[in-house]
Amino acid sequence: MAKSYFTWFDSVGVPYEYTYVAANVTVTVLLVGFAVAARAALGSGEKASVPAGNFGIKGVCESVVEFVDGLVSGALGSGTRKYVPLFGSIFFFVIMNNLFGLLPGMTAATGNINTALAIGAFSFLVYNYMGLKHGGWHYLAHFAGPVWWLAWLMIPIEIISHVIRPFSLGIRLSVNMTADHTILGTFIDLTKVVIPVVFYGLGTFVSFIQALVFTMLSMVYVAMATADDH
Fold first, then answer.
1. What per-residue confidence (pLDDT) applies to 173?
2. Is the pTM higher than 0.85?
3. Could you tell me which of 104, 106, 222, 225 has the fewest CB atoms within 10 Å of its CB?
4. pLDDT tens column, 16-30
């Protein structure tokens, strides 16, 4: 497929087919750097437990953690704060990759189906691991359904429904981000000022919503896998 737009990765000789890899690596490095800076800003001892008094790295991180904690508590119930780092990482990774594509001369790695499916596969592995850890082999028994003599029918249906989940997560994310950034790029080419500002705002909103939807669906899968009625 021929390349139809410029990215800053061209200037360092990154081939078009690996542009999404370069974007992915760049965002990951930035996130690691942000995490190190956030840990330093947090401090230690009593200082770490004192809320931030201004808008800085610590304040931003506290707001995000509170937001994700609220989502986890709502989806998984009380006593599930241990999942906050996991879903916080997923949310941060997806939204930062989404927003990265809004920068002039950059591309969103999440708009590439390979990256989106990889994150979907990660979510798939996580919720199945959590299910096995919580219910042991009893977790696998739910694939047979509630009626033993229908197991021959339910097992393939359940397997197919689970296998489809990472694909649906990845394709939804990739398609929405590709469409959003394509529309933005089109209007920037047509009208250089004023109107693109509206679409930058819309793109930011879509980036947030897609990260939220991906994270929430991952939470729902974990909630279903760890339900005690399996």
1. 94
2. yes
3. 104
4. 888 989 999 999 999
* Tokens (6 digits) for 171: 């394709």
CA distance 56 to 139: 44
The three-state secondary structure class of 7 is coil
Contact indicator for 196, 188 with CB cutoff of 8 Å: yes
For residue 143, give the nearest of 114, 13, 97, 132 by alpha carbon. Answer: 132
User: Which two three-digit tokens encode residue 181?
Assistant: 């950034």
Q: How far apart are CA 54 and CA 156, in angstroms?
A: 54
Q: Which residues contact 86 (CB under 8 A, 6 or more apart)?
A: 126
Indicate the DSSP class of residue 93.
H
Distance (Å, whole) CA 91 – CA 123: 12
> Which distant-in-sequence residues (6+ apart) come within 8 Å of 9 by Cβ?
19, 22, 23, 107
Q: What is the pLDDT of residue 194?
A: 66
Tens-digit pLDDT profile for residues 196-221: 778 788 889 999 999 999 999 999 99
Confidence category of residue 2, pLDDT binned at 50, 70, 90: very low
Q: With contact defined as beta carbons under 8 Å apart, do 126 and 86 qualify? A: yes
Taking each helix axis from N to C end, the angle separating 84-100 and 113-135, rounded to the nearest 10 degrees, works out to 170
